[in-house]
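Hey, can you fold this one?
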Amino acid sequence: MKKTFHTATLCAASFLILPTGAYAEGQTAADLIEMGIEQLVDMEIEVESAGKNRAKGLDVPYAAFVISAEDIRLSGARNIPEALRMAPGVTADQVGAHEWSVSIRGAGGQFSRFVLVMVNGKSLYNSVFSGVNWNELNYNLADIKQIEVIRGPNAAAWGANAVNGIINIITYSAGEKPNTNVEVWAGEHHRQGVNLRQSGKLNNDWDYAVSGHFGVIAGLENAEFDLQEKDGRDWRVSTQVQRNDDKSNLQIYVEAFGGDIGPIWSNIFTDPVRREYILKSEELIGGSIQVNYQRALDENWRWNVRTALDQTDRQSNFYYWDSRNLQADLELSGTVGIHALSMGVNSRFSYSSINLSSFNQVDYFINFIDENENISSYGAFLSDTISLSDKWQATLSARVDENQISGTSLQPSMRLMWQVSDSQRIWAAASRAASTPSRALTDAKNAPYEIIPANTLGNPLPIVIVISDMRGNRNTVTDALELGYRVTWGNSYIDAALFKNEYKYNISVAPIGEPELYPALPNLPIALIQHAIFDGNEEFESSGYEFNLGSQLSRKWDVQASITKSNIKNYVGWENTLSLRSNYNVTDALTFSAWWMYRSNYETSQAEIEDINTIDLGLLYQHSESTSIALQLKNIGSDKIQAVREAFSSAGMYVGPHGMITLTHEY
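Sure. Predicted structure:
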């Protein structure tokens, strides 16, 4: 049942105090939106997420944004998708208690192949559906230094699936934040958890960090029938050691994670024809090891080696899913005269095993042609940023990828930046990016896709659409144009961008043959079976603009406002997203935060999503130098469905208001 949260007085107060983010302590990538004018113009920062070379923050020819550790702390976010809502152009909607739909510039979803997500440069996409299992990213948020979001294609630097943008989650290095941190939280609807973090020195050469997380995630209620997700539990243990000297840096990460979750999935039955909703019980456990090594060859050149191995096992009453990934990267960057060069080779090897036999008592359920499969991919890139004059800079990049499923793809990029004045920049970009198809598309057989009810389209019987195969195992290709403007003055900035993306060879559902009676005569038919295929020939386009304003209005008050308008032609139409955030230091010890979010309604093939209009309010009391207490009221407003799953969808889950209290002690 829908509920309304009555907080008229607090809501009115929130509009007197607009948005935010204290300036970040560290400087990498998109810090341009966190720093004042002097730092923007004079400080040289590493812009790894934007292009893997070094550049001054004001001169980055990308639509970039950073979410700092202080932003996360003041927002009250309890997971990474909640934190991503602070970035303009990013939509992070809750599908269920344990599932999220994240998109950039309009195109995305829970199983999206158009956003590349990384942790410290390690790719997180999986070969089964090429998306990200967000419930595997249950990091202790105290570990996160910042989250860099680059909007628009960046495949020339990072490879396949960096179509609409990249998200790079950067954790603190072992020696960067030596302390002990304990965080405990509790809230309505069984929400509770604890985070622990300890870091320091092992000896004169080595630093270490160890952190742990345990949380209880409240299950959500279905919008149309009396079925609620079960409360979930998740845990994570992360360790890191680091060694630094004058010329090199070695980082080793070892992590383990797990959880028990219970979302609601659906399946199609044919006797009688119906969609049945089932509480999925799933246990997951996984781990990873990652080694990053950087070394300076001389004053101008450095090289970087990155290797990572991860494994995840997921077992439920729907399937058993085992996946393993091995990544290896070698990169070299440096300067020669007016050229800032970056080049490298990358490889990724993925193994996955899908066993669905435990749930195959239904008439039509997804099967894979091969239960086990190995997929390999290789890539090489070259980027050259050329200082044409004091006012003009050009970046020419190209990447070649070879994927076992879809073959070879060339992904070029061209960017031009004009220094209008010391505080203004205009950039333009034309680029191409590719998204690889996944096993769920290429290997699926006898997969129920949808039910068309009886007496629809003139048919007296219901029609069950069943996916039999895929035609055209090739990459979805995106050709993108972008025009951006950035200006800083005093302690304020504006960052704006126009974009247009044209997608080719996207995957859609195409019928094959005529519908067949089910069951066949002499039994009386109860349905029609329409066989179909995934067809990689669809074309569509998206366009829109992003406007982001940030300002430190006074020593006590800072603000951030963003507007994003995007249109996916022939799909959801125009979508508007607005965000207004503010932090106000009432006293030296008390900070009041307010965050208003709005997203216009849109329609998908699964459901029509209503307008989302919510407010988050927070009070942070710094009791002492080491102890703080935070109170958060989140999702103030009526219960809303934010998103639905693209496949195995339920009727939608209500996301409603709730309160949280967090106690943090650091020493």
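The longest strand covers residues 527-552. Let me know if you want another pass with a different chain boundary.
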